[in-house]
Amino acid sequence: MSTEVPNPLTHPTLQDVVAAADTLWPFRWQEDWDASGLAVGRPEATVQRIHLAVDPVAAVVREAVEAGADLLLTHHPLLLRGVTSVAADGFKGRTVHELVENRCALLSCHTNADSARRGVSDALIAACGVNADDAAPLVPRAGDPRAGLGRVGTLDEPVTLRELADRLAARLPATAQGLRVAGDPDRRVSTVAVCGGSGDSLFETVRSHGADVYVTADLRHHPASEAREQALGPGRRGTPALIDAAHSASEALWLPWAAADLQRLLASRGFRVAIHVSTLRTDPWDFTVRAPAD
After folding, report:
1. Record-annotated residues binding a divalent metal cation (predicted)?
2. All domains in the chain, ordered by first residue
């Protein structure tokens, strides 16, 4: 009498991982200007170790290679702007060569992961204290109103603007910028809108949702100044207040979610893979200098 032994989980191919990523963060949802997708790698190659990071900078690539990763999955694309050469005399070319020579593929999930459920903005609004399952997109996708850019939702209990900023400061990765805040620190806020990454194009949408505070990154002077002036206008009661984080910090909270979701989906398809989330700080700024006190 023989006992049939079930087949153990096998390692996926790169094509299998890309297909799983497309299920979680559909590539068709990326913005027209984006370059999400596979940038380096053979689809038939076996993937045993995946390294996750926000930016495909040299230090991250080195970390992935030294860890023996077969795939580096980043939020930001390496080749977002058009290039005509990947010669190793430039930093993008050196990155491509480093990856190819060490048999490490490169996959990016950028604005598609911004729009997807359990994506970048869901992780950010959860850090604010809003149940991400109850949050709605600021800009819903046609045909799928549960997905889209940004999120808006309600805190379980109102807090002051300062308390919300302190909460985020404790949960976001540390950066030289920290958090910049515009608004009355003692004003209580309840409805929170967020957009991971650059979000100053969504001010009108945030106002239309009646948000008390808007959490995003890369706020430029003129849009932020105009939003502040409008918030102080008749009937606005100082809303929305603004919390401006460093770009990479506003997106990094998604990485552990992405790792867990990707591993769970691959396992359900019969694959096993080791996934590591990088903790390297890839924000480009090193320090700030304040004016001396009088």
Report:
1. 75-76, 114, 247, 251
2. 14-112+252-277 (3.40.1390.30), 117-245 (3.40.1390.30)
